[in-house]
């Protein structure tokens, strides 16, 4: 088991009353799974992904990741766990505009205190693997949307994470670029055994996963195995 959520609740207080973003979420994810999370806007998809990614806390419940009780960890320990095991891919790419492709991919490795020579080797390997060696000195603004998302995924993979969390990863791409990104995820999942959890509005993208979790009003409405 890679991670487990038990009875997760998340709410915000509005005018003295609670508005629930997530209600009683129970989820177990095994290493090597490919999971899609779907649901209408406001159903809690991104909130759930942010809790799994340790970017946000729940108000109630338990979260176990790699045998560690996440909510009981100190900030530093949690940050260490996150940097070591989780790669995030966002809809808006989140590349750093002032850094080149090479530097963007290298950034998470600097946070991991990896030695310079080792970083060089890892980045060279990733650039080669993604076929973007020729773009290493370009800045994000010089790339197409599809290329930027490719760099975003390359950066997420640089630190060799156990799981990639993708929030609408093809949301800003045309259908051909989107398909290329989904095929890449499929390959990473099948060949490298990377666990992938994606939030998507697209039935087609969801079908790449082995199961789809449908959320409605912050609850798990149904789980469909593909």
Task: Provide a descriptive summary of the structure in words.
This protein is an alpha/beta fold and 226 residues long. The protein has helices spanning 45-52, 75-85, 101-111, 116-129, 145-158, 175-192, 203-206; strands at 3-14, 17-29, 34-38, 60-65, 68-69, 86-89, 163-167, 195-199, 211-216, 219-225. It has one domain (3-225): Rossmann fold (3-Layer(aba) Sandwich). The protein is built from 7 helices and 10 strands. The strands form 2 sheets. It has a 6-stranded mixed beta sheet, sandwiched between helices. Strands 2-1-4-5 form a 4-stranded antiparallel beta sheet. α3 packs across α4 (116-129), α3 runs parallel beside α5 and α4 crosses α5 (145-158). The model has no long low-confidence stretch (mean pLDDT 91).
């Amino acid at each position: 088991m890679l991670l487990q959520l038990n009875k997760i609740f998340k709410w915000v207080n509005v005018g003295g009353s609670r508005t629930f973003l997530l209600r009683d979420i129970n989820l177990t994810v095994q290493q090597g799974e490919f999971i899609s999370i779907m649901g209408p806007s406001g159903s809690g998809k991104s909130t759930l992904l942010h809790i799994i990614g340790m970017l946000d806390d729940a108000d109630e419940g338990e979260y176990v990741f790699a045998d560690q009780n996440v909510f009981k960890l100190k900030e530093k320990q949690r940050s260490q766990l996150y940097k070591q095991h989780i790669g995030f891919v966002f809809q808006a790419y989140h590349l750093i505009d002032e850094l080149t492709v090479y530097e963007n991919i290298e950034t998470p490795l600097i946070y991991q205190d990896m030695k310079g020579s080792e970083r060089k080797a890892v980045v060279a390997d990733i650039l080669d693997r993604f076929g973007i060696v020729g773009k290493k000195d370009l800045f994000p603004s010089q790339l197409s949307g599809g290329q930027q998302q490719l760099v975003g995924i390359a950066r997420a993979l640089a630190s060799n994470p156990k799981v990639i969390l993708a929030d609408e990863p093809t949301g800003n791409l045309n259908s051909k670029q989107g398909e290329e990104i989904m095929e890449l995820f499929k390959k990473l999942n099948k060949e490298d055994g990377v666990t992938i959890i994606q939030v998507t509005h697209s039935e087609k993208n969801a079908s790449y996963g082995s199961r789809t979790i449908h959320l409605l009003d912050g609850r798990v409405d149904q789980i469909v195995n593909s």
